[in-house]
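Can't attach files on this board, so I'm pasting raw text. These are the components:
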Amino acid sequence: MGNEVAYKEEKLANGWFILGVQGQVNRLTADGFYQKGEEVVSREARTAIDLSGVDYLSSAGIRVFLRLLKKAKKEGKEFTAVGAAGDVKSVLEDSNMATLLHMRDTRDDL
Amino acid sequence: MRPSGDWKQYEATDEMYVSMLEDIMSAAQKAGIPKTQETRLTLGVEEMLGNIVDYAYEGHGPIWIRAGLEGDFFRLDFADHGHPFNPLAKDMRHEEGLPVEEMEEGGFGIYFVRKYFDRMEYDYRDFQGKKANVLSLWLKIAESPS
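---
Top answer:
Structure tokens for the assembled complex are below.
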């Protein structure tokens, strides 16, 4: 099980800030993912988590998405996810998080 | 019928978590779990082991794991001497339509276990000389539709 996650930040011309995640989001990496996400959501008005580099997302990762979504809503900001595929997409859909996040297939949909 | 594996004891800590998971996935591969079922298995193992590591003991304690083939299923058994806790006692599904602000952050993991595994059983019984939480999960070896 991977316990290293890499992040890449990018600002799009339309104002969306992309936090790209690379690796596995599990019980060992979720705290770091939350800290990084919280830092970005605190700073940016519109944040999208790019999951195209994530090949495993567990309930620990779903909890992080819910916490970040709550924070964004409380602060009147936009927060979503893009690029999820395969099992990662299934987990987001099965937990209803895809709907709550208004998840998009790609960053071109932002 | 009993599973083909033997009980193996570990220390219920995050440091041992990766070893436990690797041993289970190795047993699953020997049992013939297809690649497409590995994520479901990992999600269930992470949830069950995480519960024991985080909540079973005040400090550290033992966890026993048995994994192996049982008929057409890969069977997993977890046992610990921690606080009595039946993870299957409550239906932890999140209510649809509940505002995000009111949603609880727990419950997703057990929801995945209920959704992805074919059968689950919990018992609080004598095991290794003490009362123990004993949880069993069955995952069908053949691929199931998503």
